[in-house]
Design goal:
The complex is a heterodimer. Chain A is an alpha/beta fold. Chain A is 46% helix and 18% strand. Chain A is built from 16 helices and nine strands. At the A-B interface, helix 3, strand 6 and helix 16 of A face helix 4 and helix 12 of B.
Chain lengths: 352, 298
């Protein structure tokens, strides 16, 4: 009896899948979007995808994926591509260099009110986050580190540190700590001496680094447990654990403004519709929704105008003009050109 | 003379045919297993081997191996992997041997109950156990909080995030792999040998070293080898408890996939690790007569 029930439900399920795939194959106005899943995709879905799809009268088929390596796999195996994928800015740039992405048509997508540097030929910014220095308020109270020089100064701020276990922004913050002005960082980092200078500075701090963190969840947990006194990390994560009672604070000074973005893989079945959809979700009105669900800022500056985002919330977002001003941008050119070399140097320093 | 008479039995051919038929039947019965081994082990490994020679541009290249020779990083990572594996194995032996000996001397019922304490962690998820150690060992963890409260030490000890934490976590996970074969071997040692030794006037210590210990060696070497080889491919525990300071080969494999965006760079590391592991198994099979230990030589 039990078996019967199961087989019936299996049959029913496969039937509905069949129907669903048939309808989606016949309808022209269905877009497949792949993103990272979890609370992040949840926020994207409620804030961006659903409202935009409703306005355009189309259907969105959402999927979860493992990043650009999945796009590469699909492209190599000849499987049907997604129409739109969400990605980190760095991996999107590398995927573009590899020829996996379709160039975006900025005649369709209006980026005139975007922050400069939050879109490239192949990907358009979806949300903005910031890499900041966070400190334990139990150890330092209100007088936490206000710059990377403070972060590297173990005499003025005794205590343990945590940095990411990849090169990421470590070279940049080392140079800032060593006194290189904000505007010159990438220029200096584009020379062998500059890279060596940054690495030496990191080497100096290494004995005080208690943990090299791997993920956002980890650096948030490290601060919550009081395992380290200072860490680099993604601002949103600290907000979440602070709400949970963690003794942590951070500020945006000398932070690194980075962004997630949307791209269209080469071979996407509904390229033109995808382009229009990207134009829609890049509009200020839609972009302003995101902050309701997650503490990431819009890539479109205009979303901050006309009270689209509550002023109190807006002030805490990384791309709020006053916050954005204090920060540096992620220079993707540097990552494409010197990333591999920097990574190898960093790895070697780690294993010393 | 008896041999010739045996060979010239009248139904010899029929018997031979029967034997052949039986062997073929057995082989065909084993064919699903053989097929699945080919499918899930041999083909992927061959594919891995092939990929390791594919360079960035998609053509044949040795660059993935050249990188391993040129950069100091890889040599250090292999060294760390062997160091951590060897240390884990040694600590496992130091803890596991006395425990297995103690268990083997207990009456059966008591031994079974004590064995549960060895097996219980064995049945718990590796990830759960690793995070449990993190809670116990970290700066504001159980051990440091109590130690400081009781005045045993003033500054929190660095237990988690580093070599210490990695070793503690790995020993906890690996110990049953050593204790189980060791206990099995010790149980088969005839207690009469020990009595005979005592009867001949040997002290208990001498009896242990000259009679019991050599007889327990097959179990010890089997356990040692299992632990060491399993350690070589460890990922989760060093990744979590090592705090980024203990980088083992398996972790570098995953790093390489993210970093070089190509499977070749990761495959080459996998091939080298596989080759080293097989070399170790080969040498130990010669030195330790591993086939006898694992029961194949009987």
């Amino acid at each position: 009896m039990k078996l019967n029930k199961i087989s019936i439900s299996v049959l029913a399920l496969s039937g509905s899948i069949l129907v669903a795939s048939m309808t989606s194959a016949s309808a022209e106005d269905v877009l497949s979007i792949a993103s990272w899943g979890g609370s992040y995709q949840d926020a994207q879905s409620k804030a961006l995808f659903q409202p935009a799809a409703k306005e355009m009268g189309i259907t969105i088929k959402e999927e979860t994926y493992g990043g650009m390596s999945d796009v590469r796999l699909r492209s190599k195996s000849g499987a049907t591509q997604w129409d739109i994928v969400a990605s980190g800015s760095g991996s999107a740039a590398r995927a573009a260099a590899e020829g996996l992405l379709e160039p975006l048509d900025y005649k369709v997508i209006d980026v005139s009110t975007f922050y400069p540097g939050l879109y490239t030929e192949y990907c358009v910014g979806s949300d903005v986050y910031s890499v900041v220095d966070a400190w334990n308020t139990k150890t330092y109270g209100e007088n936490g580190p206000r710059s990377w020089a403070d972060f590297f100064d173990v005499k003025k701020f005794p205590g343990t540190r945590s940095l990411r276990d990849k090169y990421d922004i470590n070279f940049q913050i080392a140079l800032l700590a060593d006194g290189v002005p904000k505007e010159k960082v990438y220029e200096v980092l584009s020379t062998d001496e500059g890279m060596k200078r940054a690495l030496d500075k990191l080497r100096e701090l290494k004995p005080h680094v208690a943990v090299w963190w791997k993920s956002g969840a980890q650096h948030a947990q490290l601060m919550k447990d009081g395992e380290v006194d200072m860490t680099t990390g993604w601002n949103g994560r600290f907000d979440v654990v602070r709400k949970d009672g963690a003794k942590v604070d951070y500020d945006f000074n000398q932070g690194f403004l980075d962004y997630d973005c949307f791209a269209i893989p080469k071979g996407a079945p509904h390229k033109e519709l995808a382009m229009k959809f990207l134009a829609k979700i890049s509009e200020a009105k839609i972009q302003a929704n995101l902050a309701k669900y997650i503490t990431y800022g819009p890539a479109n500056k205009k979303a901050y105008e006309n009270g689209l985002i509550d002023e109190k919330v807006a002030k805490t977002l990384p791309s709020y003009p006053a916050n954005a001003e204090k920060q540096l941008r992620i220079n993707l050119d540097w990552y494409t050109k010197y990333g591999e070399k920097a990574s190898a140097m960093f790895q070697e320093m780690l294993t010393e | 003379m008896s041999e010739t008479s045996l060979l010239s039995r009248p139904n010899e051919k029929q018997l031979y045919r029967d034997a052949l038929w039986e062997r073929r039947t057995l082989l065909s019965l084993a064919s699903p297993a053989l097929l699945s081994i080919v499918l899930i082990i041999i083909i992927p490994v061959a594919w891995l081997f092939y990929l390791s020679f594919i360079g960035k541009d998609g053509g044949f290249s040795m660059e993935n191996y050249a990188r391993m020779v040129e950069s100091k990083t890889y040599a250090r990572i292999f060294l760390t992997t062997f160091k951590v594996s060897a240390l884990t194995t040694i600590i496992c032996i130091l803890i596991g041997y006395p425990l297995a000996y103690f268990l083997s001397q207990l009456p059966r019922k008591a031994a079974n109950i004590c064995m549960l304490t060895v097996l219980l962690p064995f049945w718990t998820s590796l990830l759960v156990r690793t995070y449990a150690w993190l809670v116990i060992l970290q700066r504001n963890g159980l051990i440091n909080n109590w130690g400081i409260k009781l005045g045993l030490w003033d500054e929190p000890l660095k237990l988690a995030y580093g070599l210490n934490g990695t070793l503690i976590g790995m020993v906890h996970i690996m110990a049953p792999f050593l204790i189980l074969p060791l206990y099995g071997t010790m149980k088969t040692i005839n207690q009469d040998y020990m009595k005979a030794s005592a009867n001949l006037g040997a002290t208990p210590i001498r009896t242990f070293w000259q009679v019991f210990f050599p007889l327990s060696l097959p179990g010890l070497s089997a356990g040692t080898l299992i632990v060491f080889v399993l350690c070589l491919g460890f990922f989760v525990t060093p990744a979590i408890l090592g705090g980024g300071k203990v980088i083992m080969v398996s972790m570098q494999i995953s790093n390489n996939i993210e970093l070089f965006f190509n499977w070749g760079a990761a495959s080459a590391l996998g091939v080298v690790l596989l080759a080293t592991t097989m070399l170790i198994l080969f040498i130990s099979s010669r030195v330790l007569k591993i086939d006898k230990i694992l029961g194949g030589g009987q």
